[in-house]
Amino acid sequence: MTPQEYVQLKAFARQDGALLSLVMIGAFACYIIGMTQPLLTFVALMTIAATPFFVASRLRHYRDYGRQGRLSFGLGYAYSILTFFYGGLLLTAATFIYFAYLDNGYLISQFTDILQSPESQQAMKLYGVDKEMNDSLRILSELRPIDYALNVLSSVILSGFFWGLPIALFMRKKQ
Protein backbone atom coordinates (compact mmCIF):
# COMPACT_ATOMS: atom_id res chain seq x y z
CA MET A 1 0.00 0.00 0.00
CA THR A 2 1.38 3.35 -0.99
CA PRO A 3 1.29 6.34 1.38
CA GLN A 4 -1.36 7.97 -0.84
CA GLU A 5 -3.57 4.85 -0.62
CA TYR A 6 -3.16 4.82 3.15
CA VAL A 7 -4.22 8.46 3.39
CA GLN A 8 -7.22 7.73 1.16
CA LEU A 9 -8.17 4.69 3.27
CA LYS A 10 -8.10 6.73 6.48
CA ALA A 11 -10.05 9.59 4.89
CA PHE A 12 -12.86 7.30 3.70
CA ALA A 13 -12.88 5.46 7.04
CA ARG A 14 -13.11 8.72 9.00
CA GLN A 15 -16.00 10.01 6.92
CA ASP A 16 -17.84 6.71 7.04
CA GLY A 17 -17.05 6.33 10.74
CA ALA A 18 -18.76 9.67 11.33
CA LEU A 19 -21.81 8.41 9.44
CA LEU A 20 -21.71 5.16 11.40
CA SER A 21 -21.57 7.10 14.65
CA LEU A 22 -24.78 8.90 13.70
CA VAL A 23 -26.46 5.54 13.19
CA MET A 24 -25.13 4.19 16.50
CA ILE A 25 -26.01 7.38 18.42
CA GLY A 26 -29.52 7.11 17.00
CA ALA A 27 -29.72 3.51 18.20
CA PHE A 28 -28.43 4.56 21.64
CA ALA A 29 -31.05 7.32 21.85
CA CYS A 30 -33.80 4.91 20.78
CA TYR A 31 -32.66 2.46 23.45
CA ILE A 32 -32.74 5.08 26.21
CA ILE A 33 -36.13 6.41 25.13
CA GLY A 34 -37.28 2.83 24.61
CA MET A 35 -37.19 2.26 28.36
CA THR A 36 -40.65 3.82 28.37
CA GLN A 37 -41.58 3.30 24.70
CA PRO A 38 -41.11 -0.41 23.83
CA LEU A 39 -41.36 0.17 20.08
CA LEU A 40 -38.21 2.29 20.17
CA THR A 41 -36.33 -0.52 21.89
CA PHE A 42 -37.16 -2.67 18.88
CA VAL A 43 -35.99 0.12 16.56
CA ALA A 44 -32.73 0.34 18.53
CA LEU A 45 -32.12 -3.40 18.26
CA MET A 46 -32.85 -3.42 14.52
CA THR A 47 -30.53 -0.46 14.01
CA ILE A 48 -27.74 -2.19 15.91
CA ALA A 49 -28.30 -5.34 13.85
CA ALA A 50 -28.09 -3.27 10.66
CA THR A 51 -24.71 -1.65 11.44
CA PRO A 52 -22.61 -4.38 9.73
CA PHE A 53 -24.71 -3.99 6.60
CA PHE A 54 -24.25 -0.22 6.76
CA VAL A 55 -20.47 -0.64 7.00
CA ALA A 56 -20.56 -3.12 4.11
CA SER A 57 -22.46 -0.64 1.94
CA ARG A 58 -19.95 2.09 2.77
CA LEU A 59 -17.09 -0.32 2.00
CA ARG A 60 -18.69 -1.03 -1.38
CA HIS A 61 -18.78 2.72 -2.00
CA TYR A 62 -15.09 2.98 -1.07
CA ARG A 63 -14.26 0.02 -3.30
CA ASP A 64 -16.18 1.32 -6.30
CA TYR A 65 -15.26 5.01 -6.10
CA GLY A 66 -12.04 5.19 -4.14
CA ARG A 67 -10.37 2.01 -5.41
CA GLN A 68 -11.81 1.83 -8.96
CA GLY A 69 -13.56 -1.46 -8.27
CA ARG A 70 -10.62 -3.34 -6.72
CA LEU A 71 -10.37 -4.26 -3.07
CA SER A 72 -8.24 -6.86 -1.34
CA PHE A 73 -9.37 -8.66 1.77
CA GLY A 74 -6.69 -6.97 3.90
CA LEU A 75 -7.61 -3.48 2.75
CA GLY A 76 -11.31 -4.17 3.29
CA TYR A 77 -10.59 -5.51 6.76
CA ALA A 78 -8.48 -2.47 7.66
CA TYR A 79 -11.22 -0.16 6.37
CA SER A 80 -13.87 -1.96 8.44
CA ILE A 81 -11.80 -1.83 11.63
CA LEU A 82 -11.00 1.85 11.14
CA THR A 83 -14.62 2.71 10.37
CA PHE A 84 -15.82 1.02 13.55
CA PHE A 85 -12.99 2.69 15.48
CA TYR A 86 -13.79 6.22 14.27
CA GLY A 87 -17.51 5.66 14.73
CA GLY A 88 -16.85 4.28 18.18
CA LEU A 89 -14.89 7.37 19.19
CA LEU A 90 -17.83 9.64 18.44
CA LEU A 91 -20.31 7.26 20.05
CA THR A 92 -18.06 7.16 23.13
CA ALA A 93 -18.11 10.95 23.35
CA ALA A 94 -21.91 10.97 23.05
CA THR A 95 -22.21 8.24 25.69
CA PHE A 96 -19.97 10.15 28.08
CA ILE A 97 -21.94 13.37 27.58
CA TYR A 98 -25.22 11.54 28.13
CA PHE A 99 -24.17 9.83 31.36
CA ALA A 100 -22.24 12.82 32.71
CA TYR A 101 -24.82 15.55 32.04
CA LEU A 102 -28.19 14.18 30.93
CA ASP A 103 -28.94 10.83 32.60
CA ASN A 104 -29.12 11.85 36.28
CA GLY A 105 -29.82 8.23 37.28
CA TYR A 106 -32.62 7.67 34.76
CA LEU A 107 -31.24 4.42 33.32
CA ILE A 108 -30.60 2.85 36.75
CA SER A 109 -34.06 3.88 37.98
CA GLN A 110 -35.63 2.27 34.91
CA PHE A 111 -33.69 -0.95 35.51
CA THR A 112 -34.72 -0.85 39.17
CA ASP A 113 -38.37 -0.44 38.22
CA ILE A 114 -38.13 -3.37 35.82
CA LEU A 115 -36.46 -5.58 38.42
CA GLN A 116 -38.96 -4.61 41.13
CA SER A 117 -41.96 -5.70 39.07
CA PRO A 118 -43.73 -8.80 40.41
CA GLU A 119 -43.03 -10.75 37.21
CA SER A 120 -39.30 -10.03 37.39
CA GLN A 121 -39.15 -10.85 41.08
CA GLN A 122 -40.87 -14.18 40.48
CA ALA A 123 -38.62 -15.06 37.54
CA MET A 124 -35.45 -14.12 39.43
CA LYS A 125 -36.46 -16.24 42.42
CA LEU A 126 -37.40 -19.13 40.14
CA TYR A 127 -33.95 -19.10 38.54
CA GLY A 128 -32.19 -18.23 41.78
CA VAL A 129 -30.55 -15.07 40.47
CA ASP A 130 -32.26 -12.44 42.63
CA LYS A 131 -29.12 -11.73 44.68
CA GLU A 132 -26.92 -11.59 41.58
CA MET A 133 -29.28 -9.18 39.81
CA ASN A 134 -29.35 -6.88 42.81
CA ASP A 135 -25.55 -6.99 43.01
CA SER A 136 -25.31 -6.22 39.30
CA LEU A 137 -27.67 -3.28 39.69
CA ARG A 138 -25.60 -1.97 42.61
CA ILE A 139 -22.41 -2.26 40.53
CA LEU A 140 -24.06 -0.46 37.59
CA SER A 141 -25.13 2.38 39.87
CA GLU A 142 -21.53 2.83 41.05
CA LEU A 143 -20.08 3.19 37.53
CA ARG A 144 -18.83 6.59 36.46
CA PRO A 145 -19.71 8.13 33.06
CA ILE A 146 -16.19 7.42 31.80
CA ASP A 147 -16.66 3.74 32.68
CA TYR A 148 -19.78 3.55 30.52
CA ALA A 149 -18.02 5.40 27.71
CA LEU A 150 -14.93 3.17 27.75
CA ASN A 151 -17.11 0.07 27.83
CA VAL A 152 -18.91 1.31 24.72
CA LEU A 153 -15.61 2.09 22.98
CA SER A 154 -14.14 -1.34 23.67
CA SER A 155 -17.36 -3.05 22.56
CA VAL A 156 -17.48 -1.14 19.27
CA ILE A 157 -13.80 -1.76 18.53
CA LEU A 158 -14.16 -5.49 19.26
CA SER A 159 -17.25 -5.67 17.07
CA GLY A 160 -15.23 -3.99 14.31
CA PHE A 161 -12.61 -6.73 14.53
CA PHE A 162 -15.33 -9.37 14.51
CA TRP A 163 -17.63 -7.95 11.81
CA GLY A 164 -14.71 -6.76 9.70
CA LEU A 165 -13.88 -10.35 8.71
CA PRO A 166 -17.14 -11.27 6.95
CA ILE A 167 -17.59 -7.74 5.61
CA ALA A 168 -14.13 -7.73 4.01
CA LEU A 169 -14.58 -11.29 2.77
CA PHE A 170 -17.84 -10.52 0.96
CA MET A 171 -16.82 -7.10 -0.35
CA ARG A 172 -13.41 -7.99 -1.79
CA LYS A 173 -13.17 -7.75 -5.54
CA LYS A 174 -10.43 -8.18 -8.07
CA GLN A 175 -10.59 -7.00 -11.63
From TrEMBL:
Q: Which keywords describe this protein according to UniProt?
A: Membrane, Transmembrane, Transmembrane helix
Top-level taxonomic group:
Bacteria
Q: Which residues cross the membrane?
A: 17-34, 40-56, 77-101, 148-171
Whether Ligase counts among this entry's keywords is no
Annotated signal peptide? none
> What is the designated name of this protein?
DUF4199 domain-containing protein
Species per Swiss-Prot/TrEMBL record: Xylanibacter brevis
Taxonomy, top ranks, is:
Bacteria, Pseudomonadati, Bacteroidota, Bacteroidia, Bacteroidales
